[in-house]
Amino acid sequence: DLGRSSELAFVVEPSDDIAVQEQPLILYCQVEGIQPITITWRKNGVMIVDSENSFMLANGSLYVSRFQRVRGDGSSDEGEYDCMAQNHYGLVVSRKAKIQAATMSDFHIHPQNAVVEEGGVARFQCQIHGLPEPVILWHKNSMPVNTDNERYTLLPKGVLQITGLRAEDSGIFHCVATNIANVKFSREARLTVSGSHSTVYKDPMILVGPENLTLTVHQTAVLECIATGNPRPIVSWSRLDGRPIGVEGIQVLGTGNLMISDLTVQHSGIYVCAANKPGTRVRRTAQGSLVVQAPAEFVQHPQSISRPVGTTAIFTCVAQGEPPPQITWLRNGQILETSDHIKLKNNNSTLSIYGINQADEAIYQCLAENSAGSTQASARLTVLWADGLPSPPQGVRAETVSATTIQVSWEKPLQNTKEIIGYVLHIRKAADPVEMEYQEAVSKSTFQQLVTDLEPSTSYSFYIKAYTSRGASKASEVTVVSTLGEVPAMPSLFIKVINSTTVQATWEPSIKLGQHEGFKLYYRKVHLSQYTGPVLLASNVTAYNITHLDASVVYEVKLLAYNQHGDGNSTVRFVSLRETVERTVLNPPCDCMKDEQNNKTSTTGIIIGIHIGVTCIIFCILFLMFGYRGRLLMCKNVQEQLSTPQIPRSQRSATGLVLNGATRRDRDDRDLNGKQLDMNELERLFPASPSQEQQEKGITSAHSLSASHDETQISTLPLDEFSFIEEQPDSLPKNPHGSSPAALAPDNGPANEG
Question: According to its record, how does it sit in the membrane (predicted)?
């Protein structure tokens, strides 16, 4: 019962048929539904009137007494037939049945004489067109070919193959074509088998490859492939797309013909026949395409529905087939015309009827059709209408409040208002289709609604319905009103100081501004009330330089966007040029010529300074090197003097003298009693020698050893206080003061100086 309206539906529909000339033809049509039902027939869309030749039977079928392909008046009984059934619920139309006359043409391909060596392959072919497809049989020497012989292969398209030829295969062959229209015989052809089987090598060769075929599901496809060669080649099949051919329904006829039974759409593809030389990779190929069509059939049928007045009815009809079917909708047997409230979507698979009323009550049919066939399904729309429903709301008015808001008001219906439970406001952009409509529910005591979140400068349509528990009223009159235009939004503004008298105002264009015609720029000194401007700028301008400004004051800059609806809000920025002036004073503009000369002079001075610095460093290094060398020599001389006294082992051990430092005992005891070295201890440590006078003149005064105990950590013989001159007897000049040339005593200073 899927796809049937219980009020009116087809049980049997007419089907495609092939009629025989001068023979009767019956087209069946059976309908069920609520009586009375009227059935009529059409041919090629034209109503058939009962006549002596064709009339309708009591069960609704159409009877054609003598089918004629061409009548004396030029008319024909061939064509597309459909039956229509109608009752007070509506009208339905059956699928179209294609009726054709049985025919058979003459043979346009006849078998040809052939001479083939023994062991070879012979092929005969005859071809003829006819409706229905003729059955072709082969005769040899006027007798039917023995099909039990496995070397003889008969293909459906009128091909006879004989493999492994022998002498007894020689003879005269012809074919016989038969269908309900006629029987015809082809011309005869002679087969001669010559010689004995050859052992000469021959490359594999495909004599005939597969043809391109277009068939319908459940039919049988035969792909021919016949090959020759010595040794006899092996024939194999594959699909060009690499998919497996499968085994179900697959059969090999003869030595290499592929037969596929009970075709499905999945069998469509390109098939490759390959002839391989046994044991090698030598091969020849041929290919042909197979297209399998499937007539349209429904995946989802439309269902009969009942809807209250003013609501939306939706029918869904999904069909499949190969090629994909086209879907057409009928309303009571007539092609459905779309309008503002009748829409087709999803490749006509969905029928939507908005705001239904009693005039929309009908039987709706979905027709799916492709080149392989057609089918239909029907469903009925029942519009629910209860007596005593409210009349339409009155006095619907819409007033614009702002760019995004409209207020809609109305008055209650004139009749049947007691059962009203609320109102529904239907809202839609005037330019949008009906399916874009949306609703807002309102309580029964409210007679106005503020509609917000609308788009500026846009027209909207409104209508009202009153609802009861039993259904809705008819729609009120439709009112259309437009929202106000909206001024642009605030632009972003940035200020950049160029110099002491110029600033640059920049801003970014943005879609957030909305529709705008341009910009207005104002500026002023902050202590003044009067603005300079407006400076009118085009909508594509994004920067403007403000010049001749006073650097000692702060400026206010204001920018806004405007359009035909007015000025938008402004963006304000403050800017001061004082810092720029101060930077200019601190860093005055350069005199390029003067600076260049100064740069040259400065460069010369820098070079001279570098030379002087390097020279000083060299002298310092030399001074340090020679001073260090002198100290080493002095240390050597002192060590020699220290080694002169012969102090007992115990005394030496107790004294523990260390050059350039305090004695170990002194270091151990300096924190206990603060003992200081005196002159007597120095004399005890350094006994007088024959050169005592010279030594006294070469060694620092005793007072340098009388420093505080805290300073004794410095050497008691600080070598830095000595100047050493190598002795050159009799050759060096005398000191002007009469001192020995061996050493010059330093000024009396602290022992730890330096």
Answer: Single-pass membrane protein
